[in-house]
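Recall the central idea of this unit: under ordinary conditions, the amino acid sequence of a chain determines the structure it adopts. In this exercise we apply that idea directly, starting from the sequence alone.
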Amino acid sequence: MDAFFASVEVLDDPSLAGRPVIVGGLGPRGVVAAASYEARRFGVYSAMPMGRARRLCPHAAFIRPRGGRYREVSTEVFAVFREFTPLVEGLSLDEAFLDVTGSIRLFGTPREMAKQVKARIRERTGLTASVGVAHNKFLAKLASDARKPDGLFVVEATHVQDFLDPMPVARLWGIGKRTAPRLRHIGILTVGQLRRADPALLAPVLGKRTEHFRQLARGEDDRPVVPARADKSISREETFDVSLGDRDELLAELQRQTEQVARRLRSKRLLARTVTVKIRDDAFRTVTRSRTMVAPSSGTQTLYRLARALFERWRTAHPKVAVRLLGVGVSALEEDPEDAHDPGDGDSASPGRRVDAVLDRINERFGEQHVVHGQTLRRRKRD
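Accordingly, the structure predicted from this sequence is:
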């Protein structure tokens, strides 16, 4: 998807059309999550500190992320993908690999399918997508970036080197900010130069991965598309604009995050056995505390009680330490049979289970965090 978060904001507020739009944390410690193409012309890009983005593009519209809305649109987009193939490997809310080998007889050539995917996404969501087509994942990913926004690019098997060779060597997966300068130092600036270089020249820089990068430079990638990989964990965390020391505010934030994690568990019909709390202070010391339950649960209050106990144990030992980051996560996940009850909350007709079900239905209809437990308001009032 093209500048996904920013594009959703423009879709929901047409007055933003044509303006630079920057989505991310709005405080002094915030980070850019997405920038519209209008904002990118000023040098703003994702993962940039928000303070720098404000200096580069002070006239932009700055918007706090709405995770629930983005997931809602993402669900529509992925539904389109699965109309063409069951082999869909999601990389994030707005990006996926599709293996369409078995769909050619039904839908036509890969190029024709790419056009249909783009058209259906536009029709269903009002948003644009860029599609790359190739015979492997590495090339398809690079091709998807070749004509953004609203692009379609096909890498033919007979023209792989024409496509790859002129690219900066940093376009190869795994060549980062540390490795690229070292390659430049030995005269390797492009993918083509790396492909043709003597392995003995590359080995001191690339080490044991020399052959791996040479294979990528030749456009070789034999990884299959792996659909529906099971979640290993679900988590939420928040870096505060101003470090928090007030216990009630920190517990309110913990409650808010636990609600989001628990709702995510229930939406995927999962139960969790292990709860983890993550805490980082102003000295950038990070600690995690975990506990595993005998019986798995997806109940908001069950998970919150355990998360709170873990936090309180840390707080007792550090009563005056201000918290820069707080997070909660769950792991050791297992499927929740449709008729199963939540052992942590009693039987399936327990008040806790029924409250969770009602809140899930309301928030699904009206937006995430539309109805919350009252304790979270202690944090939301400050926001």
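Confidence is low (pLDDT under 50) at residues 339-348.
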